[in-house]
Please model this.
Amino acid sequence: MTVKALYDYEFPSADRAEVFGDDQLVYVHWRGNPLFCSAACFRVPKNMPFAEFVTSMLHGWAASDPDFDPASVTDWRLFDEQLSGGQDKSLADLGIGHKALLSFAA
Amino acid sequence: MSVPTKKAASKPARKLPLKERYALLTRDLDWEPGYVDREQLFPHTRYEGIKIHDWDGWQDPFRLTVDAYYKYQVEKDKRLYAVLDGFAQSQGHLSLSDASYLNAIKLFIQGVTPLEYAAHRHFAYLARHLEGPAPRFAALCQSVDELRHCQTQIHTISNYNKYYGGFHSWSKMHDRVWYLSVPKSLFDDAMTAGPFEFLISISFSFEYLLTNLLFVPFMSGASFNGDMPTMSFGFSAQSDESRHMTLGLEAIKFLLEQDEGNVPIIQDWIDKWFWRAYRMSALVAGMMDYMLPKPVMSWREAFELYFEEQMLGGLFPDLEYYGIQPPRHVNDAIAEKDHLSHQVYKILHNFSFAAAFTTKTPDEAHMAWLAEQYPDSFDQVYRPVWEKHRKIEADGGRVFFQGLPQLCQVCQVPMAFTEPGNSAQISFRRSTFRDETFHTCSDGCQWIFEREPEKYVQAWLPVHQIYRGNCGGPTVPDVLAWYGIQEGDNGEYTGSPDQLAWAAWHSDGDDKAV
Ligand SMILES: [Fe+2]
Ligand SMILES: [Fe+2]
Ligand SMILES: [Zn+2]
Model:
């Protein structure tokens, strides 16, 4: 169904990929940790290596829980699938696109 | 030029019977257009697909005239302002249950009062654009009511602004701050719909179906916690609200009776607006269970009484006669009644560093009350999390979410809700539209998104806007400054300026100054 209107209803999406240039939005959910109410949202360069994303973005956020141990981060998933590929690859190379949802356990 | 003098003292005007007087002052003032056709005069009443065959079929149960309306409202204002003056002069704020109670009222003036103003604007639009004189006049009265509600709420609550944080920039905050985008975007959604959808969204779903869960809890919270002014405001709005509820019910019955083809359209709107308003009520649920030092009733109890018993048990069986079913996702709402308030207060507690109110971890007595109210969920799921917070706080810490949350594209609440029937699993819903991914928090929000994706892709999501650089700058202090949040409005309640001032005002020492 489309929006009923008195004119052609045609507007761009507010947060479409091009608005962020070489960056993109990525969400990260810590599975099974109820201290965090929800997943977090990050703005990151598409070609940032995954390992760098984890240390520079994720660690700071996850440390909101004083029990967080960076060494224990494991079992990464991209949406519902196991994340496959080396951590040295970039987000783009791993297929992590704009507004992708990542999750991990720790 | 001389003004013709009136004929001296003619006989006194005959006092008309109420019904006749009403007819002359309202319907009789309507006219058939002569030099344009009806479609030109009323251009907005056809495109939504609703068919009206007889606008005179709209009953107006109140038979109110403008002069009677104003006379009555003036009386109510006088009574309200007398209470406000008395409360201010006697330093009534010192007899509240606790300063932390005012967090609920901060949420109210930031989240609800601007909606009164938005309602005023849009009912003025309906007063112009509905075709029948009776619904136009009802919309006009409601428009004036809503402006009065906005004004009296500002006056009622302004007294607290002299003594407490968080009350100063509510209008700016409503337009900018992340949690306030929840109510703001709901009203924006309604105001950008057609006039009939607006009637179903605001008059029916908001003011009739869910008013006891959206509006009334603040007023009962006020009366339990010594907030005479807010309680008096509630009384002063009560007769207006009963008129608004009647308008909501009248509107839906009128639309359903006019044409059978209207039924599926109305059903769709009920399905959509029940879930929209219900999702917004999540903020009220968190307020009811966690922000009131003296709680009135739990969210769960209110939901069961006002929604399950009165609406599902009472109203919907009546609407079935017209072919209307209970709202589409109502069972998901029922399934999460043991969880909603806890999940929402967790959001507020995680993020109150960026809010114009404060939060705190519930103490032992409060947790005992919550356990009693939620025997199937509190001790099992939520107590362990609060106990972890207490332990961290005992060691001098305080958990805040060091980042920004993922938001639902439709309701704009952080994605904190769990799957119906599984409180350990966050509910993630994903849609793709024009090759872009969109996230929603529930089947209800996803259904709403997929019904009109062209509308919701435009959502002003506060988190994404911060990342786009539209909210004052990249750092937390930049964004807080842009929000209008001042140091001490936000964060943890314990040790906050409000809490310290309250403690000083209530200490037995000599410096009991105000
Ligand atoms: Fe109102
Ligand atoms: Fe109202
Ligand atoms: Zn949602």
Notes: The pocket of fe (ii) ion (ligand 2) is lined by residues B 207, 241, 244 (CB under 6 Å).
